[in-house]
Amino acid sequence: MNVYGDPQQRGYQYGAQAALQIRHSIASYARQFAYRCGLTWHQSQTLAEGSLPWLERHTPQLLEEIQGIATGSGFTFSEILALNLRTEILARAVSGGSHPHYAAAVEHNRQAGVPQHPPDPVPEFKEIDEIDESNSSQAHPDWGECTTLAALPQVTATQHTYLAQTWDWVGAQRSACLVLRIHAPDHPPCLTLTEAGILAKIGLNQAGLAVTLNLLRSQQDGQTQSGGMPVHLLLRLLLQCETWQQALERVKSYPYTASSCVSLASASGQLISFELSPQGIGLHHPQRGLLVHTNHFLDPTLQVHELPPYVGSSTRQRLERASYLLHQSAQRGSLNAVALQEILRDRTNAPRCICRHPDPHLPAVDRTETVAAVVMDLNQQILHLAPGLPDQVEFVPIPIQP
């Protein structure tokens, strides 16, 4: 999907082309906000609106684009805003499983005519692995766990910079994924894999910068909704940067109300992960030209405020496994886009593995899997996308310029 022009024009084109997928996103997040937080869709929009005074001061052009998406799609501004603040709204939940007000919130949404998913949609995958009951994640729902990998030119076979990740989330949201090319008069062209209605997620731009996202959780997450930068808006702002220094300054200039890890890389050979939280920002630097991040804090100061990973979390196993595979490939001199794709397909230690299949024992609303996988070559300016379980689909190369 390509969008052009000023913020209102780009937003309108986006909304008009993706209206059905935006409807799917609303159904997904209305259900998630009810399930995890006990919030109705109306309450979720009200929470998002609470951030407007801060956003109007700091991101007026992004709000114009959100208004354009709303106009083009036929949904309201508040609905599109709530999608873009989905991480910050979900941060209000403090435990896994369903919220006590889940059923009431779902019924309220139904009566209000909010888009709905079928009660238990059929999972979008080809086959289900045999489940080892002693090692299953069943009865331990998670929050979505992504694995980020990166490599700098001095350790890659091509002397290119690569940034890659699996995006793990509820499988039903795969139908709302889209690839968006953004052409604007005031910033470099950029390409992002995102969820319909959301301004950006994983992506790269023509200035040679790229970003990925991992979920983190800390004790102060979600305690305020009005005074910080939503992470999906931050990702879009980073994709609009012309230089590495501009991107660094942009990350460090805002407070955050929900925890996450944003990894930033450049074609010129710079790389860092920012651990963002209400307590501050932690930095995770590459080691010998390589970087791996999963879903727990690595900064010692921020670890003090971390919520412990849920029972059954695979974040530490995936960090260890991905680090091993990445270093092994670098030592062989074979580290390139194809090698990174193979790492993202890895099923060792299943179900606590990099390429995550859905657990059929869990309800669909909690059935997390690898929705998509991405390998970005920053020098060739190509995003290689696996639009499904990466061990079952091929990676498709998508250039910034069509």
Automatic annotation (TrEMBL):
Domain Peptidase C45 hydrolase: 159-385
Secretion signal span: none
Pfam family, one: AAT
Gene3D superfamilies in UniProt: 1.10.10.2120, Penicillin V Acylase, Chain A
InterPro entries linked to this entry: C45_proenzyme-like, Peptidase_C45, Peptidase_C45_hydrolase
Cross-referenced PANTHER family: BETA-ALANYL-DOPAMINE_CARCININE HYDROLASE, PEPTIDASE C45
Name recorded for this polypeptide: Peptidase C45 hydrolase domain-containing protein
Source species of the chain: Thermostichus vulcanus str. 'Rupite'
Lineage, uppermost ranks: Bacteria, Bacillati, Cyanobacteriota, Cyanophyceae, Thermostichales
